[in-house]
Specification:
17 helices, single chain, 28% helix, seven-stranded mixed beta sheet
Length: 659
């Protein structure tokens, strides 16, 4: 038998291409070790594993580090979500576990419960505790940590087996699966399988995206600056570490000497930032976003602090000063081998610790600033096996899949004359975070306002994410919830852990459906996937006015993916106009192949009674009143939008053999 791997990590750690050849098949080769193999214990990977396991699949979750949770357990203790009504599902379950932890430990009225903000803010160790509890509760999940992926075997254009190396022992381990979920930040699994991907920034003309390519952007006034050409390149946003710090002296790890690799030359540009006002406060102050007035116009403003429980802080590195030292340090990271990546891990760690040491100790920094900086240190009770420093590098963007569909800036922003972003029939979640890209270059704008590539929190409305962005163009057997098929600009809103958790949930359910129904990932019944997701709390379509307790809530989610609603207002308690109901009827028939013969509408609406007669013309049972009618009203009353949605959704589910 002749087996060859398309790509593998060579002895020196570099990615090398060999060949993509098929091999003969034996009965033993078709036997799998697990139904679903999730590679990457990121938040998306964890939720994918849980969703697949709850859907009945045998799951193996394998992670490079000896800890799971990715950024959410490595310092990112402030959930990156602007609209909490837009993302629910397993992410919401995670936040409820966080809230329960703090409530049970400290009491409902405690300061720590207030600081956890309903479970959306948390300490890294608490997030890891919750993730571990959620995974261990699923008997169908086998968890393996400390393994790096080395190779992927494909046969007949489908991923069949992945090879790993135990980082502690050096031993190799191969795992066969029916479906592989690539939940790595880097897209390592699908690259090793030979799937096509993008790396870097598209040009402005590639997809007609206004903010694509080389860009200098005024984040305060949302306007383009001199030097913006829109040309594409291979640059990617800067990586950093997301620090956790404390102001509790009893829990502080204080650096007594310069960290390894310290060089104050890396940080001297910050003095000019201080002098010219780039370490001041934001134009728009948002509570809870890491803004402390005491830090404004001091060297402490090189960081952004967001308070989390137990006298700790989620500390991001402020990308707005021109002295920000991290751009270009990640060049070639995505395609580098493990040895080179580990060198980059060390380099970014040295820069992060060096910056902290610099603002606390450099004699040229004003004494008052140093005193303020020395109020904050790494916590003794976090990352206890890693020098109190996070394990996971903040990989904001690496490879991006070339999938069955490419999400662009135009899909997540409003087009002229439209009241809703692009509607996708295969939507599997709603996204909502602003477009936010860290600098891609150390080059400042001509007016000294910003570094090249920085697009800071550009507001956008809620949008739908289609299933097709998770599906590789050609390789089968793989689904991709993290390094998915988008442009650089669109990825700058997708790349948030709450959304990734929801995409992971969708990927896990899809993988289980693929295994159960013996279909390829690209052929999964999207309507069945959507029905399972809404049943488990996923938001497919965001509305400004939708009450989660409304009996038509799930129906509106589904029909929102089919184009029932042209704006962000559902208006479920309003009468449905006759013309709109006729449009809905056409969509219903297209979706279910069931006719919906409406009577001639001589008024602005039809009544409940008239609609009931229409439903009686269907073959099979008519939805029970308790399913679709609101509590009050009679058959002479106008049919309400929510009632029509609920009735049609019930029939569509029954038609497809789902409930």
């Amino acid at each position: 038998m002749n087996r060859r791997y398309f790509i593998k990590l060579g002895a020196a750690g570099a990615l090398i291409s060999i060949a993509d050849l098929t091999s003969c098949t034996t009965a033993g080769e078709d036997k799998t070790d697990t139904d679903v193999l999730v590679v990457g214990g990121t938040p998306a990977g964890i939720m994918a594993a849980i969703a697949a396991a709850r859907s009945g699949a045998r799951v193996t979750l394998i992670e490079y580090h000896h800890h799971i949770g990715g950024l959410s357990t490595s310092g990112l203790g402030k959930s990156d979500i602007e609209n909490k009504d837009a993302i629910a599902g397993l992410f919401k379950e995670f936040t409820q576990h966080i809230l329960r932890y703090y409530t049970e430990k400290y009491g409902a009225d405690s300061e720590d419960v207030k600081k956890c903000r309903g479970g959306y803010y948390y300490e890294p160790s608490v997030a890891e505790h919750v993730f571990n509890r959620m995974v261990s509760a699923e008997t169908n999940i086998t968890l393996l940590t400390g393994y790096q992926i080395e190779k992927v075997l494909t046969r007949g254009g489908k991923a069949k087996e992945a090879g790993f190396k135990n980082r502690a022992t050096g031993e190799s381990r191969n795992l066969k699966a029916e479906v592989f979920i690539d939940a790595t930040y880097e897209g390592d699994l699908y690259a090793l399988a030979g799937a096509a991907y993008r790396l870097g920034r598209e040009g402005k003309n590639d997809f007609g995206e206004p903010h694509a390519g080389r860009i200098f952007f005024d984040y305060n006034d949302n306007r383009f600056l001199e030097g913006s050409t829109g040309e594409g390149d291979k640059r990617i946003p800067a990586y950093t570490y997301r620090l956790c710090m404390t102001d509790d002296p009893a829990n502080s790890y204080v650096m007594k000497e310069p960290p390894a690799g310290y060089n104050r030359e890396n940080y001297l540009k910050y003095f000019k930032d201080l002098e010219e006002g780039r370490l001041g406060g934001p134009k728009v102050f948002k509570e809870g976003h890491g803004y402390y007035k005491a830090h404004f116009d001091t060297m402490v403003r090189v960081f952004s602090f967001a308070e989390i429980p137990n006298r700790k802080y989620d500390v991001n590195t402020n990308p707005r000063p021109l002295g920000f030292p991290f751009p270009e340090e990640n060049f070639n990271y995505a395609e580098a081998g493990w040895e080179e990546r580990e060198r980059m891990f060390r380099r970014h760690r040295e820069l992060a610790l060096g910056l902290l040491y610099f603002i606390q100790n450099d004699p040229e920094i004003p004494e008052a600033h140093r005193q303020l900086a020395n109020q904050y240190h790494l916590p003794l009770d976090e990352f206890t096996d890693n020098g109190h420093f996070p394990w996971q590098l903040y990989v904001r963007e690496a490879r991006r899949l070339k999938g069955a569909y490419t999400l662009t800036e135009n899909d997540v922003t409003l087009k002229d004359g439209e009241e809703r972003t692009t509607i996708f029939h295969d939507a599997i979640i709603a996204g909502e975070f602003p477009i936010d890209s860290f600098p891609c270059s150390k080059e400042p704008s001509a007016d000294g306002k910003v570094l090249e590539g920085y697009i800071g929190m550009l507001p956008i409305p809620a949008y739908q994410l289609p299933y097709r962005v998770l599906v590789p163009e050609s390789i089968d057997g793989i689904i991709v919830p993290v390094a998915a098929s988008t442009t650089h600009v669109a990825y700058s809103t997708l790349r948030m852990e709450p959304l990734w958790m929801g995409i992971g949930q969708a990927s896990g359910v899809a993988a289980a459906l693929s295994v159960r129904n013996k279909t390829e990932i690209r052929d999964v019944d999207v309507k069945a996937l959507q029905a399972a997701l809404v049943e488990n709390g996923q938001i497919l379509t965001y509305f400004d006015d939708l009450d989660p307790a409304d009996k038509a809530h799930k129906a509106a989610q589904f029909w929102g993916t089919r184009g029932f609603f042209k704006s962000y207002k559902a208006g479920l308690r309003q009468p449905v106009p006759g013309a709109e109901l006729k449009r809905w009827a056409a969509i219903f028939t297209e979706t279910t192949n069931l006719p919906l013969a409406l009577p001639d509408v001589h008024t602005d609406y039809i009544t409940r009674g008239e609609f009931r007669k229409v439903m009686k013309s269907w073959a099979g049972p008519v939805p029970d009143d308790a399913v679709w009618t609101y509590e009050s009203g009679t058959d002479a009353d106008p049919l309400l939008k929510g009632e029509a949605c609920a009735a049609l959704f019930s029939k569509a589910a029954e038609r497809s053999g789902r409930s």
